Amino acid sequence: MTDAVDIAEPDAEPVSGDPAPAPNPRRWARMTLGVGTVFCLGVVIAWPMSFVSAIFTGMLLNGARPLPQKAALAALLIAILSMAANWFAAQFLMTYPSVFAIAITLVLYQLYLYGARGGHPVILVLVMIGLVLQPVLLQMSRDLAAIVGLWLILNLLIAIVASYLVFDLIRPDEDAAPKQKAEIVLDEDRQALRMTLIVAPFALIFFSVAASNTVTLIFVAMLTPQLSAVSQNAGKASKGLIVANLIGGAGALLANELIVMAPSLPFMCALMICLIGGYAWAMQSSLSWAPVAQTAMNASIVLLGSAMAPIDTEVAGKLSDRILQIVGAVAYILLAFTIVDHYLPNRPRRQERGGGPS
């Protein structure tokens, strides 16, 4: 997976320091309608890991244009092949812990190299979720791991279809075009190595202690592609992500309290659409946390979506625990980035020149 698939990438979500985009009512409406509808349908129909499709929908709607059809087919093919390969390989390699650790590390490196070379973030997140989630689930049940892998693929399909429908209903502006940013071209191998050094120890510790908190793994999978795109001041960027997760956790707790007080599906759907609409507005606002508003929205979606099925009095406690676990995971990323930045800072890619070395 060293070469990026030719997929139109959505506007990258800045993690810190970038100015908020100009307000766009169409973009706000697409994000609110698309993500809100997919999330609510997932709760009502209750298909497995439905909150993942809402997150994928938000990532696809974050672009100026819908995903090209060829790119969508390529994404689905990559998802199918990666989930199948991961399921079969993990069963064999997990019986040899040392070999498994080496294999996971090498695959993570290739995955982040794919992202550094312009791979689509939706594919990066989906493959990353499968990579870190399926080995944990295989320790519980082979069938469960297979079902989760299948539903990750189906959630991607649902998100692609939903994004097409929303873009067809609320068409992009005629002059809509992907943003072109003048950025330093970084050493891709070094970027991939940095991210591998940060994420591999976290994942391997999870596997070794047989931890079952899959929500934390899913969230780390969603966060690391954003951080891998940070060229400078990764410490400040990761602090911004901590703020985003605290805001997302607070939003999830508040929404949960209201849902517990009035446990009805119509009220829950209306509340979630309003909450997502608020995050969509914040993404285009001048608020200090606007660059990480989508991360905050994803935090709320993961926390509420993973606990929404059993709406009972114990959910609030579970949400509090999950928020602390997620904040702890982000704090680890902050510490790891600080260490990696000190010993292995990013550097511009060396420009090859004709006529031999200079």
The low-confidence runs, each spanning 5 or more residues with pLDDT under 50, are 1-9, 12-20, 310-316, 352-358
Beta-strand percentage? under 5%
First-to-last CA distance: 31 Å
CA-based gyration radius: 20 Å
Label the structural class.
mainly alpha
Shape: globular
Largest sheet entry? none
Beta-strand segment tally: 0
Helix content: 55-70%
Note the total helix count.
Answer: 12
Overall average residue pLDDT: 80
Order of helices and strands: HHHHHHHHHHHH
Summarize the SSE layout with pairings.
Elements: H1 25-45, H2 50-61, H3 69-93, H4 97-116, H5 121-138, H6 142-169, H7 188-208, H8 214-228, H9 234-261, H10 265-283, H11 293-305, H12 315-343
Helix pairs in contact: 1-2, 1-6, 1-10, 2-6, 2-11, 3-5, 3-6, 4-5, 4-7, 5-6, 5-8, 7-8, 7-12, 8-12, 9-11, 9-12, 10-11
How would you sum up this structure, described in words?
70% of the residues lie in helices and 0% in strands. The protein has 358 residues and is mainly α.
List keywords for this structure.
single chain; 358 residues; mainly alpha; disordered N terminus; disordered C terminus
